[in-house]
Automatic annotation (TrEMBL):
UniProt keyword annotation of Nucleus present: no
Keyword Plastid: no
SUPFAM superfamilies per record: Cytochrome c
Protein's recorded name: Cytochrome C
Segments for region (Disordered): 1-24
InterPro entries associated with the record: Cyt_c-like_dom (IPR009056), Cyt_c-like_dom_sf (IPR036909), Cyt_CIE (IPR002323)
Keywords for the protein's UniProt record, in alphabetical order: Electron transport, Heme, Iron, Metal-binding, Transport
Gene3D superfamilies assigned: Cytochrome c-like domain
Amino acid sequence: MAAQQGEIARANHPMPVASQPASFVPPTAASAAATTTTATATQVSADAGEKLFGSVCTTCHTAGLMGAPKLADKADWAPRIAQGKDTLYKHAIGGYQGKAGVMPAKGGSQASDEEVKAAVDYMVSKAS
């Protein structure tokens, strides 16, 4: 009986058939690179900077430990912002030791460079 019901269902609802056969096109190096770039860009969401700040950066940037500029403190951030984002990114990613203190590479985290840049952008946006 179940077999008959299955046959009736298939007869009443046949599987759709493509009008043209699908063809496989192997990816080229350029399309693979574009896919990788797109995947990387989408992996870092808009709020990735705030998330990294909340989990890692807040330790020093809330209390000003080791000379870290405090979040939203315009006076602390102004001379750093004046150096440009490329310098801020370089110091945050690679680490930096200056007169005021120490910035460990990536805040001592395993975050990606893009996540660290997003965290820098987040902190700068709060101090601007």
